[in-house]
Amino acid sequence: MTPTSLPGPRRSLAELVERVQEGWTLVSYDDRSYGLSRTTRASGRSMSLLARELGGPDLVSANVYTTSKGAQLRACEMPDRKVLDFLAGWQPQREGAAPPPVAPDADEDASSTAAS
Questions:
Q1: Among candidates 46, 36, 109, which has minimal Cα distance to 72?
Q2: Which of 38, 54, 61, 92 has its CA 20 to 30 A from that of 18?
Q3: Are 12 and 71 in contact (CB under 8 A)?
Q4: Where are the alpha helices (DSSP H) in 3-116?
Q5: Which residues, 6 or more positions from 20, have their beta carbon under 8 angstroms from its beta carbon?
């Protein structure tokens, strides 16, 4: 799927992607919290988007390529519609929020306890 605009308020894929700041952002979507990250490569011609639900199982992942035909969406193992709905619907939670701490791996805990 290569939409140039979406139903409802007319926003192109490029406009939806531009809403996402480079790096990590705390956002909400569908009454859930997500860590949303954007990584831009190739002088802006390639962008990776990844949203992980905090404390839950949901994941949204896609690559967006800027070509002579405009922005091209390549969702990662999910329907394009899921990615587009997320990009159109997320809202920032608060400015300057840091990502949550990462819990240690269970195997690391077991090996450090065994070493004591």
A1: 46
A2: 54
A3: yes
A4: 13-18, 80-89, 106-115
A5: 36, 38, 49, 87
- Inter-CA distances, 63 with 33, 60, 70, 107, Å: 21, 11, 14, 32
For 108, the token pair is 């690391």
**Residue 22, helix vs strand vs coil:** coil
Could you report the per-residue pLDDT of 56-109, keeping only the tens digit for each?
999 999 999 999 999 999 999 999 999 999 999 999 987 555 555 544 554 444
Q: Which residues pair with 26 in a beta bridge?
A: 35
| Phi, psi at 103, each rounded to 5° | -70, 145
HEC secondary structure over 54-71 = CCCCCEEEEEEEEECCEE
Indicate the residue type of 90: W
User: What is the pTM for the complete model shown?
Assistant: 0.73
Cα 25-71-13 angle, rounded to 5 deg: 55
- Per the structure block, which two tokens stand in for 72? 């091209």
